[in-house]
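Homework help board

Subject: predicted structure for assignment chain

Our instructor gave us this sequence and asked us to write out the predicted structure in token form, then describe one feature. I got the tokens but I'm not sure how to describe them. Can anyone check?
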Amino acid sequence: MGPKMREGIEVMSDGKVYTSRELRNKGVNKRVLARLKEGGYVHEIGRGRYFLDEEYVTGRTDDHDKDHLLEDFARAALTGGEGSVICLYSAAQWHDLSIDMVPQVQVGVPRSRGPQRAELELVQFVRWRAQEALHVGVGVAATYKGVEIRVTDAERTLVDLLRYSPLANLGDNSGLLIDEESVTEAFALYFKDPRANPARLIAMAERFNVREPVDLIIKSSQKDIGIGAECEAPRGICP
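My token output:
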């Protein structure tokens, strides 16, 4: 391995996902990136985004360092009311399944609950008919200034992203669609993490009637980057 490749690995050693432009700005050019990919050191996911193979990650930041999200999530939880759930893109941010910034916090609430209009710039409500949607795969992820923040776990988040996408539009709110690319990217990020739990994901998919499309995505992920080991507890949820 040449010095340029070693420098590229060092740049990406924090385990984060980088765009080709970000890598170029850090001195990793296309030729070096291509060699890293060919050697299996680096993997690519949608839209020209790259991450270092887990074997070479040495400087990963704490997965629970989510302070930048807590204030907005707490306000959104108060706006949604008792039993509300941070979900979809916002939950994906919590679980590091998306690197896109979303202007509104997406909050699952009972279909019958009305919004508080003063907070609509902050919150996008996702209305669920079934009570189980507010409880299955949901847990308290953090407490901020006395406010419990309930978030869908990683596997439930993936299932919800899929349900509200063109891949399997089964959500209660048919007007709310997640783009297909965001779904496939979230699955790819999930399966590159050694804590990925395919068995739990499949069980969640069966619970919400999206087993077939999830199976297809899992097969694709196995082929491209492999699947991590199973874990005993949901990711990103406090025990």
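Reply (TA_rk): Your tokens look well-formed. For the description, you could write something like this. The chain has nine helices and eight strands. That's the kind of observation they're looking for.
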